[in-house]
């Protein structure tokens, strides 16, 4: 009797193998041969479940996004306004080992996206989702009196998303702007002109 294979489970295992290799050895090491070795199968077995490496990278990007959303949900539970914005940005920016590894996957996906426009929908979905959440929380901050009534919410959302994208690249390039304090300072520079009560140096939002 033919062996029954759960295709979704096998695809998930391939994605996890890809992410494991990236975490241990970096994105350049995450070749089809390395992924197959991680799973203990031949390279050809990968392509029963994915059309090509672009599809593997896109699936890994989706998995990273799902994990980020799970962390955001956990970190922002019970929070609103600026505290929720702070919680979101701490999970999106490459501030720790996990998010630094994820930046490798994200930037690798963007590199493939430039040559394969069919992948662009995934990136647009993420920007719309995070942008919508940030916009809602910034409006809460205005309603709560933490930000001025004339705060340009849409412009700040665009800046925060642009910073998020740029910092993924800085993570891969390991530039001085990767320093966590400098990353968080960029966020504060977006918000400080509109705060009702300016944050003091070294002060953090209570979560």
TrEMBL record:
Classification via PROSITE patterns: HTH_TETR_2 (PS50977)
DNA-binding region per Swiss-Prot/TrEMBL record: 31-50
InterPro entries, A to Z: BetI_C, Homeodomain-like_sf, HTH-type_TetR-like_transc_reg, HTH_TetR, Tet_transcr_reg_TetR-rel_C_sf
SUPFAM superfamilies in the record: Homeodomain-like (SSF46689), Tetracyclin repressor-like, C-terminal domain (SSF48498)
UniProt KW Signal keyword: no
Domain HTH tetR-type per the UniProt entry, residue ranges: 8-68
Keywords: DNA-binding, Repressor, Transcription, Transcription regulation
Keyword DNA-binding: yes
A single GO molecular function term of this UniProt record: transcription cis-regulatory region binding
Gene3D superfamilies attached to this UniProt entry: Tetracycline Repressor, domain 2
Name of the protein in question: Regulatory protein, tetR family
